[in-house]
Amino acid sequence: LDSRDLDGDPYILCVGRLDDPRKNIGLLAEACSRLPDAMRKRTRLVLAGSSGPPPSFWSRADALGLRDRIDYVAKPSRERLVELYQRASVFALPSDEEGLGVVLLESMACGVPVVSTRSGGPDGVVTDGKDGFLVPLDDADAMADRLGRLLRESGLNRAMGREARLTIEARYAERVAGEAFLDVWDRLLAKAGRTSCAG
């Protein structure tokens, strides 16, 4: 059940090692600065992770007039992190490069739509326009546009959130992952058996 308050306290969530330059957290600040004025003034950016953004990020946030709209949650407990996911309006991943993107899976499992750069792993997780949006690398305008759509259109937001949850259930749930692993294992064993018989 989607109990998120998309109107009362909207926020964009980003989780990760925020001092890692590959996470390109500055892109998210730039995107937030390009949201329409009224939306920017009522929407918070919540950052969470084991390491905070570098000083250059905060300097840029000051210059963009965003500093008072950004919260950083340092080393959140598992319970606190789940709560942050469950209440988020949208999850943003501005990385230059990304592996599987576990934070995407966690967000989608909580029924939250995502906006991610096409940074590797996310390309194989998010179906653009269905359970989230994929945008080009380092494109603040595109990221701002998709974030704005999800913040403005609650019906679209909730529909994508439901699809995000279904994606996780269908492709990443423990049972599904276990079955996929066993299927690969069986094929490898069968192939090994054929090879040894041929030898």
Provide a count of the helices.
8
Mean pLDDT score: 90
Give the N-terminus to C-terminus distance in angstroms: 57 Å
- Major β-sheet profile: 6 strands, parallel
Please bin the fraction of helical residues. Answer: 40-55%
Percent strand equals 15-25%
Number of DSSP E strands? 6
Class by alpha and beta content:
alpha/beta
**H/E element order:** EHHEHEHEHEEHHH
Which geometry do the CA atoms define?
globular
Supply Rg: 19 Å
Low-confidence stretches: none
In spatial order, strands of the major sheet run 3-2-1-4-5-6
Q: Which helices and strands, and how do they pair?
A:
Blueprint: E1 11-17, H1 25-33, H2 37-42, E2 44-51, H3 55-63, E3 70-74, H4 78-87, E4 90-93, H5 102-109, E5 114-117, E6 132-135, H6 140-152, H7 154-171, H8 174-198
Parallel strand pairs: 1-2, 1-4, 2-3, 4-5, 5-6
Tell me about this structure.
- With 199 residues, this protein is of the alpha/beta class.
- Helices cover 49% and strands 16% of the residues.
- A 6-stranded parallel sheet has the order 3-2-1-4-5-6, with helices on both faces.
- The mean pLDDT is 90.
